[in-house]
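Researcher: Let's try something more involved. This one mixes different molecule types, so please make sure each is placed in the same coordinate frame as the others.
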Amino acid sequence: MKIVSEQRESDTRQNIVDVAERLFSQIGFQKTTVADIARELRMSPANVYRFFSAKAEINEAVARRLLSQMEKDVDAVVGGREPAPAKLRAAIASLEKANAQRFVANRKLHELLETAFNESWPIVQQHSSALNASLSAIVGEGVRVGEFRIDDCDLAAILVRSACVRFCHPRLMVECAQEPEPTLDQMVDFCLVSLRGGGADA
Amino acid sequence: MKIVSEQRESDTRQNIVDVAERLFSQIGFQKTTVADIARELRMSPANVYRFFSAKAEINEAVARRLLSQMEKDVDAVVGGREPAPAKLRAAIASLEKANAQRFVANRKLHELLETAFNESWPIVQQHSSALNASLSAIVGEGVRVGEFRIDDCDLAAILVRSACVRFCHPRLMVECAQEPEPTLDQMVDFCLVSLRGGGADA
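Model: All components are placed in one shared frame. Result:
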């Protein structure tokens, strides 16, 4: 019976996040209240508060899910069969694409992520760590086949992500839209030269 | 007489910007009104409007001056006698230092620049172009002595500035403060490997 009950709890939590995401994308996360979410679910606000102690936690849960999806897309790239340089390019491109599509198709959800980054919510740190790990895995693959000459794959991953931040950061992406260069390909090429050229000269 | 009169006009304009900068740093640019500025200068608001057609223009003039000072600091680096790699590091470091010092010593002026970047004021584009030109000059020096292997110095400058944006962007700098890596030296080293290693392999 305990397992069934836990499953129900998890389902309810999931439903709250689903409804919140839908309302956020319709009227924006700032205008959505816990009462709005409860009403959609035909439950009392008090019941919502059994799962999330504050509205801010619901905001974070929705943002976390959006960021998790981006991490999964990058992990799909990591699990592919392309050589490391192509994986690196595809990983950065998948982050840019997710941000650009959300910005065009769902500006209000995009604003939720902009706020998360502006205010450095803990989930953003979590997202950065997840991406660093994925990029580090790609760099490591490149090192193993002799394509990259790098001693510290974790640091290299952080450097690549920092160098490409204008493509991966929801607010900066918008801000940089009026600066046509560097393109993603130019920036990734620049990073690849560095990853290939490290070692004795570095 | 015309020259004297033009000089006076220029002085008055300068005085308005001086007073505005002081008030902005005390109470913030959003709370400072044209009437406040006029009162400090013992002139009428109508007289201020002879020089600036809207408060937004005064905001821009103050922000422009802050950004110009940063550009001058970078130009001083360009005019120095160090080798190109050291100049590149010093240029990025001077931008980081100016941002960090302003953030600590004068948060309200820092907020003016954050807003300028957030809202992509035209002066920010002008600032980017000025910095690109300075960095391109440094890259060009490195190419001439055979230190860098780069075909397009302007593009290389844009790539370096983009890669180092977390140190040069007033908002991103604050946001990244909780992520200790990459350090400025790590990022500049990464760029230098790329600048040195370009060419046939690239």
